[in-house]
């Protein structure tokens, strides 16, 4: 049986959803415009979800989005210590 925890954080008018899958150590943070998925065994994934788009392009490694990634990683780390 898989174990999950879902936490929602409201900050500056945006809703963050944090989903933790404990057996794989995967976490996801979501705002209206961005979705970050981090996993200890895979590279991070960051998607611009503005306008209801799906996960089309992973921009986690692009420097112009580093501040978005850092912000969402901080939200995850404030709740779940790796």
In short:
The chain has 82 residues and is α+β, with helices and mostly antiparallel strands.
Give your account of this protein's structure.
- The chain has one helix spanning about 65-80, and strands at about 5-10, 15-20, 25-30, 35-40, 40-50.
- It is of the alpha+beta class and about 80 residues long.
- It has one domain (about 5-80): Arylsulfatase, C-terminal domain.
- A 5-stranded antiparallel β-sheet has the order 1-2-3-4-5, with helices on one face.
- A hairpin with a 4-residue loop joins strand 2 (about 15-20) and strand 3 (about 25-30).
Q: What's the CATH C level?
A: Alpha Beta
Derived from helix and strand composition plus strand pairing, the structural class reads: alpha+beta
Strand content: 35-45%
> How much helical structure, as a percent, in the residues?
10-25%
Number of helices: 1
Give a short account of the largest sheet.
5 strands, antiparallel
Mean pLDDT: 75
Strand order of the largest sheet: 1-2-3-4-5
CATH architecture assignment: 2-Layer Sandwich
**What ranges have pLDDT less than 50 throughout 5 or more consecutive residues?**
1-13
Inertia-based shape: globular
- Write the H/E string, N to C: EEEEEH
